[in-house]
Design goal:
It is built from 3 helices and 3 strands. It has one domain (2-75): GMP Synthetase, Chain A, domain 3 (2-Layer Sandwich), CATH 3.30.300. The chain is globular and about 35 Å long. The chain is an alpha+beta fold and 76 residues long.
């Protein structure tokens, strides 16, 4: 999951070297925390949160194929 999120976010931001992703896994849930450069936060969130919602939807779809749940937290 972490690699897929990395791939998606790298193509959205201006400073891909500033991306930091930490993943916490339990038996059925993966929690991903995403940090990007201050200037790129708006690009990742998108207008009215549409981009962030789309990323969360993709992660949820991927997780469901593994019988898991995924949660994305964007840390400012």
């Amino acid at each position: 999951m972490k690699e897929i999120l990395q791939f998606i976010v790298e193509h959205l931001v201006i400073e891909p070297e500033a991306i930091q992703i930490s993943e916490t896994e339990s038996a059925t849930v993966s929690i991903l925390e995403l940090r990007v450069a201050k200037e790129d936060v708006g690009r990742v969130i998108g207008k009215q949160g549409n981009t962030a919602d789309s990323i969360r939807w993709l992660l949820a779809a991927i997780a469901s194929r593994q019988h898991r749940r995924a949660s994305l937290e964007i840390i400012r």
